[in-house]
Backbone:
C-alpha cells in the first residue's frame, strides 16, 4: 500500500501520557493522564537544559458549577458594572475566560439582590473551578447528608456525579498540575491527534481532494444532496469537478508544521487555493453576516443554560459571522473532505451518515459544526477565549469541541493575528502570533490526549488596525456533536 501520511500507525502510547492511580470513592483505578513534558524537549534538548518562561498573560478558563437543584443567575462584577452572564439550570456548569481578581456571583432566579455565593478568581490552576454547593457543611458529613435529603433520587445522582468529577479533578491536579475541566469518566479522544513533540516538527499527509485551479461556472455550484448514499466516494472514484482542478494531479501533499507543543498548534500553508477562496468570498457576498453573539464560553448544554445578550461594551467578540453548511456547494464539500484527510478523520464523520457508516459512533449527525464564515473590520477582534464548552454532567458521551481549523481568506491587513498567549516556551513571555496568509490553515486542539479540555488552547483574534480580515473556521467535536 502506498503511504498516505508521515505517521506510521503504531501501538505506541504518547510519552506525555503517564499512569496514575486515583480513587473517587469506589476503589483505586488507573488513568493515563497528560503530563506536560519538560519544555527542553520542545527544543529537542536534554531535560533540564531550558526553563519555561511564565507568560505575561495570566488569564484562564473559569468553570462555574451550580450544585443546587434551583435555577440560578450568574453575574460578573467588574469595572464598576454588574453584568448578567447567563442562567444555570440545576446541576449544570458553564464558564468564561477570566483573570485573577475577577469577581462573580450567583443569585436566585428572581432575587437579584440575594448573593448565594461570591467568588474572587484566584491564580491558575487554583482558580479554575468555582462551585456553588448549598448542601455542603465543610468538615461535617452528617450535616451535609442531612441537607442532601431534600434532593430527589435523580437530583442526588447528578450531585454524586459532580462529587466524583470534583474528587477526580483534585487528584488529577495533584498529579499533573492542571485542572480536570471535563466530566469524570470522559475518555481519551476517539479522533486521531497529530503529535507536536517539538517546535517545527512536520507531518505530511496526502489528499485526493486537490486544489481547484479555477472557479467552476455558477450552475455547477448549486447545493448538493445531504443523502449519505449520494456522498460515498470510493478511492478509485474521480473527485468532483476534476476538470476545474489543477491538471495532471491526482493527489496533493499537505504539510503540518508545529508552531506550539502545549497547546498543540500547527500551520498548513496553501491549504486553500486562490480559486477556492474566490468561491467562498463570492458565497459570502450573498450571505447576510450577523453580529457574532458568542462571548462567554458556554456549557455545551445550550438547551438548558440560556445565554443572555451581552451588553454593549462587554462583548468579547465584535466580528460578524454566518454559518455555511458543507452541502452549500460541491467545492465546500471538497474542502470538508480535504479537512478530513488533514485531520485523519473519515469524511463521513463530518456529515450526516448512513446506517452502515461508522455504526460504532452513537449518532448519525456530523461530528463537526457547519463552517463559520467570519469577517473582522477595523478595530474588530475576538478577545482571548476557549473554543471548548462543558458537556452536561449526564451527557453519556461527554461530547466537546476537539479541534479547530482556521482558514485565512486574505492577508496583509494590519493586526488580525491569531494569538496563543499561553503557549509553553523557554524564550518569551509574549504570545505566539500567527499572521493571516491567504490559503493558510491553522489547526489546534481544544482537548488533550487524555480527554481533558486544554486550558492552554486559549486564543484570540487580535484587533484589526488597518484593513479587514476574512476567515472560515471548522469546529470538530469528539466523540459526538451534541447541542
Ligand atoms: O479570527 C481568528 O484568528 C480566530 C477566530 C476564533 O478564535 C474563533 O472563531 O473561534
Ligand atoms: Fe476561537
Residues:
Amino acid at each position: 500500500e502506498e503511504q498516505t501520511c508521515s505517521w506510521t500507525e503504531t501501538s505506541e502510547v504518547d510519552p506525555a501520557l503517564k499512569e496514575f492511580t486515583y480513587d473517587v470513592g469506589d476503589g483505586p483505578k488507573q488513568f493515563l493522564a497528560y503530563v506536560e513534558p519538560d519544555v527542553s524537549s520542545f527544543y529537542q534538548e536534554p531535560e533540564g537544559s531550558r526553563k519555561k518562561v511564565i507568560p505575561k498573560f495570566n488569564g484562564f478558563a473559569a468553570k462555574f458549577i451550580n450544585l443546587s437543584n434551583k435555577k440560578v443567575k450568574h453575574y460578573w462584577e467588574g469595572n464598576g458594572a454588574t453584568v448578567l452572564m447567563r442562567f444555570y439550570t440545576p446541576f449544570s456548569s458553564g464558564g468564561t475566560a477570566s483573570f485573577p481578581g475577577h469577581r462573580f456571583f450567583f443569585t436566585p432566579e428572581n432575587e437579584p439582590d440575594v448573593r448565594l455565593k461570591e467568588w474572587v478568581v484566584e491564580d491558575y490552576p487554583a482558580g479554575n473551578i468555582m462551585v456553588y454547593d448549598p448542601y455542603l457543611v465543610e468538615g461535617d458529613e452528617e450535616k451535609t447528608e442531612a441537607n442532601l435529603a431534600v434532593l430527589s433520587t435523580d437530583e442526588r445522582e447528578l450531585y454524586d456525579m459532580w462529587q466524583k468529577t470534583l474528587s477526580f479533578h483534585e487528584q488529577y491536579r495533584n498529579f499533573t498540575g492542571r485542572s480536570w475541566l471535563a466530566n469524570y469518566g470522559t475518555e481519551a479522544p476517539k479522533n486521531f491527534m497529530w503529535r507536536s513533540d517539538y517546535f517545527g516538527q512536520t507531518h505530511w499527509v496526502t489528499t485526493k481532494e486537490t486544489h481547484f485551479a479555477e472557479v467552476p461556472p455558477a450552475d455547477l455550484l448549486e447545493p448538493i444532496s445531504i443523502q449519505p448514499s449520494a456522498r460515498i466516494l470510493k478511492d478509485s472514484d474521480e473527485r468532483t469537478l476534476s476538470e476545474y482542478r489543477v491538471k495532471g494531479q491526482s493527489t496533493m501533499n499537505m504539510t503540518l508544521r508545529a508552531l506550539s507543543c502545549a497547546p498543540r498548534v500547527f500551520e498548513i500553508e496553501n491549504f486553500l487555493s486562490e480559486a477556492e477562496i474566490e468561491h467562498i468570498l463570492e458565497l459570502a457576498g450573498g450571505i447576510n453576516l450577523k453580529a457574532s453573539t458568542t462571548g462567554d464560553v458556554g456549557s455545551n448544554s445550550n438547551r438548558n443554560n440560556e445565554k443572555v445578550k451581552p451588553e454593549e461594551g462587554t462583548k468579547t467578540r465584535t466580528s460578524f459571522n454566518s454559518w455555511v453548511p458543507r452541502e452549500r456547494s460541491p467545492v465546500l464539500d471538497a474542502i470538508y473532505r480535504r479537512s478530513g484527510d488533514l485531520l485523519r478523520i473519515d469524511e463521513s464523520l463530518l456529515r450526516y451518515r448512513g446506517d452502515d457508516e461508522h455504526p460504532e459512533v452513537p449518532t448519525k449527525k456530523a461530528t463537526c459544526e457547519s463552517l463559520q464564515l467570519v469577517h473582522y473590520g477595523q478595530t474588530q477582534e475576538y478577545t482571548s477565549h476557549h473554543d471548548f464548552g462543558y458537556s452536561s454532567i449526564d451527557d453519556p458521551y461527554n461530547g466537546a469541541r476537539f479541534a479547530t481549523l482556521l482558514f485565512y481568506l486574505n492577508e496583509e491587513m494590519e493586526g488580525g493575528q491569531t494569538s496563543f498567549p499561553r503557549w509553553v516556551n523557554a524564550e518569551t513571555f509574549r504570545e505566539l502570533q500567527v499572521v493571516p496568509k491567504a490559503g493558510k490553515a491553522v489547526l489546534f486542539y481544544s482537548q488533550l490526549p487524555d480527554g481533558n479540555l486544554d486550558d492552554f488552547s486559549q486564543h484570540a483574534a487580535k484587533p484589526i488596525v488597518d484593513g479587514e480580515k476574512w476567515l472560515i473556521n471548522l469546529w470538530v467535536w469528539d466523540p459526538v456533536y451534541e447541542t
About this structure: The mean pLDDT is 93. The pocket of 2-oxoglutaric acid (ligand 1) is lined by residues 374, 382, 387, 406, 418, 459, 461, 471, 473 (CB under 6 Å). Helices lie at 39-42, 141-148, 153-176, 274-285, 330-343. The CA atoms of residues 92 and 280 lie 38 Å apart.
